[in-house]
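can u do me a favor
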């Protein structure tokens, strides 16, 4: 059975709250009257499909949530949601594999909206040596793997700094998307034990927070970037990201090149 869809007005009010917009703010952004928006929120007016999409655009909603608003207004979803192995997404999957492979010998991985591992290049696996098997059993959640005391956490040399960075990023994502699974993940990760003040803070000139990791190759230091599809028309692609790690120093680059 499909879960009940919340009334459109309730959704708009909730997203306004998350975006910290008043009714007047949203009405001005959408170029409609406050009265018209009020009628939509209270259910006195049934908006057109175009109006729903305009409001969703001004609220910067993810594609999944735009579909939900369309359903609540009585319209069919606009954006497809297909598995990544669907033939229709074959070109996208090839692009992902090409980016991951092309990034070697530096590590890179693809994740979904809940930070589950979709794919990784050959440079990732050696860095996971020593992690508990239950954390590596699918679906692998890369944030859980990073901060769990049986995962990478004991080998992260700047754990306090890296933990704070990941949690802040996850909190922002949960607030932006309204995803309850992400909110639950925040609570779980915040509950993991870690030494107070663990690790040394490292100044990268405000550009990035490095990941400093003890490995069999020696201590490695990385900075990371996130890549997303620019104009996705599929929910799956909209929620997919590639996390690419680059050497933050010459020693890390030399040690990784020596492996490949």
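np, heres the sequence
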């Amino acid at each position: 059975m499909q879960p009940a869809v919340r009334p459109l007005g309730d959704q708009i009010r909730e997203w306004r709250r998350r975006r910290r917009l008043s009714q007047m703010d949203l009405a001005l952004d959408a170029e409609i009257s406050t009265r018209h928006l009020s009628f939509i929120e209270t259910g006195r007016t049934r908006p057109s499909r175009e109006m729903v999409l305009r409001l969703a655009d001004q609220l910067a909603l993810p594609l999944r949530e735009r579909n939900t608003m369309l359903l609540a207004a009585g319209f069919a979803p606009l954006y497809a949601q297909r598995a990544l192995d669907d033939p229709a997404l074959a070109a996208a999957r090839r692009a992902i594999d090409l980016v991951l492979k092309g990034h070697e010998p530096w590590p890179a991985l693809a994740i979904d909206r809940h930070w589950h591992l979709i794919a990784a290049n050959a440079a990732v696996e050696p860095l996971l040596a020593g992690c508990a098997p239950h954390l590596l059993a699918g679906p692998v959640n890369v944030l859980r793997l990073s901060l769990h005391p049986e995962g990478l956490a004991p080998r992260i040399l700047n754990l306090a700094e890296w933990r704070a960075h990941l949690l802040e990023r996850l909190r922002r994502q949960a607030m932006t998307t309204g995803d309850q699974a992400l909110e639950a993940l925040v609570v779980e990760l915040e509950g993991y034990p870690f030494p107070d003040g663990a690790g040394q803070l490292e100044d990268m000139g405000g550009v990035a927070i490095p990941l400093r990791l003890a490995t069999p190759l020696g201590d490695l230091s990385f900075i990371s970037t996130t890549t997303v599809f620019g104009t996705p028309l599929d929910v799956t692609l909209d929620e997919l990201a590639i996390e690419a790690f680059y050497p933050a120093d010459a020693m890390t680059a030399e040690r990784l090149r020596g492996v490949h």
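The beta strands are 108-111, 117-120, 211-215, 218-228, 241-247. hope that helps!!
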